[in-house]
Amino acid sequence: MNSVIRILSKTACAAALAALVVSVPPVTQPAAAQAQAGTLDQAVTALRAISTMRADFTQTDRNGQRVTGVMTLKRPGRIRFQYQQGVPLLIVSDGKALTMIDYEVRQVQRWPISNSPLGALLDPNRDVARYGTLQQTADPNVISIEVRDRSHPEYGVITLIFVRKASAPGGLELVTWVALDSQNKRTTIRLANHQYGLAVSDNAFRWNDPRQPSRR
């Protein structure tokens, strides 16, 4: 497999895992704090209003190299990143653990959702509203939230970008996240062609174990 594609697809796991881990520096202006809390609440409400979603994603590294695929989400707890043909990686959460399967080297890695930054998206009990800081944008219909966990600097810094869209759950649509890791490597994930409320079977979050013939 092309080495650039392999590096890109490996990086996607880190970008996905880092998507929503946050911490908030203190806000000195009460009005600013209220405005920030309100917008963060809107973003959390929008995320939690999603029952199922499917979207195309494009992942771009800092050198402009790209891979694409389809992301499928079913709350609570299930997500699937299916990469383009020729990239033998799959990232799946079955509601309990987040799993990365590398079919080329027949390797499987698993993390409990509760220990994963992506748990902020998948776990309905995770309180995201008390984390994160708003970033100024030139367009009032675009909301940018910088997120980080100061107790876990290895997660890096993530910027989530939403656009106001009346037809999206909660009135906001997550269109982009940008991950900057602890080594200053930047990865951008862009979502497009969002579809909500689809009938998604739990079987969509199963995967073939490359280490044995049985299906997990």
Give an overview of the whole structure.
- The chain is built from 3 helices and 11 strands.
- The protein has a single domain (3-205), classed as Clam (outer membrane lipoprotein receptor (LolB), chain A).
- It is 18% helix and 38% strand.
- The protein is globular and about 50 Å long.
- The longest helix is centred in the first third of the chain and has 19 residues, at 30-48.
- Mean pLDDT is 77; it is low at 1-8 and 16-31.
- By secondary structure, the protein is α+β, with helices and mostly antiparallel strands.
- It has helices at residues 3-17, 30-48, 119-122; strands at 52-61, 66-74, 78-83, 89-94, 97-102, 107-112, 133-135, 142-148, 157-164, 172-180, 186-196.
- Strands 6-5-4-3-2-1-11-10-9-8-7 form an 11-stranded antiparallel sheet.
Topology, please?
Elements: H1 3-17, H2 30-48, E1 52-61, E2 66-74, E3 78-83, E4 89-94, E5 97-102, E6 107-112, H3 119-122, E7 133-135, E8 142-148, E9 157-164, E10 172-180, E11 186-196
Antiparallel strand pairs: 1-2, 1-11, 2-3, 3-4, 4-5, 5-6, 7-8, 8-9, 9-10, 10-11
Q: Any idea what the CATH superfamily is called?
A: Lipoprotein localisation LolA/LolB/LppX
SS strand fraction? 35-45%
Estimate percent helicity.
10-25%
Strand order of the largest sheet: 6-5-4-3-2-1-11-10-9-8-7
CATH class identity: Mainly Beta
Q: Which CATH-level-2 architecture?
A: Clam
Structural class: alpha+beta
CATH fold topology: outer membrane lipoprotein receptor (LolB), chain A
Sequence stretches where pLDDT stays below 50 over 5 or more residues: 1-8, 16-31
Quantity of strands, as a count: 11
Helix-strand pattern? HHEEEEEEHEEEEE
Largest sheet: 11 strands, antiparallel
Gyration radius (Cα, Å) is 17 Å
- Total helices: the number is 3
Coarse morphology: globular
- Tell me the domain tally: 1
Instruction: Give me the oligomer status.
Output: single chain
Mean pLDDT, all residues: 77
Distance between the termini: 25 Å
